[in-house]
Specification:
There is one protein chain. The protein has 3 helices and no strands. The protein has helices spanning 35-48, 59-63, 67-76. The chain has a domain at 32-84. The radius of gyration is 18 Å and the shape is elongated. 33% of the residues lie in helices and 0% in strands. By secondary structure, it is mainly alpha-helical.
Amino acid sequence: MILCDGETLEVDEAWLQRETPKGAVATRGLGRPNQNQEKEIIECALRECQGRVSGPLGAAAKLGIPRSTLESRIRILRINKHLFKSD
């Protein structure tokens, strides 16, 4: 059901655009990043999140991917996430 206050329905073009989560890796049109690029992206996110992977302030949320996916990529890319934790 569509409701309208007047006789003409107007749609703001911004409603039609998909939003990418802030900090998410854009891969459409560029292809998937290679392993070195992916490792740099993940390490940067871990650095900014002080080694936190999950939760609203974690690297997974920052990258816009599930925590389990990020944990898997960290293992595959042999990233030591503990190096990014602050004391």
